[in-house]
Amino acid sequence: MAKKKINIPFRADEYSYRVQYSPDDQAFIGLVDEFPGLNAFSGTLESAVKEIKTVVSEGLRLLAERGEQIPEPLRSAGENTAANLL
After folding, report:
1. Is 30 a domain residue?
2. pLDDT under 70 in the chain at which residues?
């Protein structure tokens, strides 16, 4: 049986990301403004960015599968901001 194609209106790289270092956790924490409850911990800044984008991709897929509302990215695709240059 073939899987039904899911329409996901946005890509993970369209969202606004930031990374901060947590001295308490001794880790970098990747965050995404449009999904306040999502985060990803990692040992390096670069891998924290990669991890949070993976978490958002999976979240988008799950929301689409469930027919739930998907948050719209805060910025337009193609804008050059510090948040999307990570």
Report:
1. yes
2. 1-3, 76-86
Q: Which of 37, 44, 53 is nearest to 21 (CA)?
A: 44
Q: Structural domain tally of the chain?
A: 1
What's the domain range around 36?
16-67
**What is the per-residue pLDDT for 6?**
84
Q: Could you tell me the pTM of the whole model?
A: 0.80
Residue 43's alpha-carbon distances to 48, 50, 53, 82, 86, in angstroms, are 7, 12, 16, 21, 16
The secondary structure element, H or E, covering residue 48 is helix 45-66
78: alpha, beta or left? (left if phi > 0; alpha if psi -120 to 50) = left
Give me the phi and psi of 84, to 5 degrees please: -95, 5
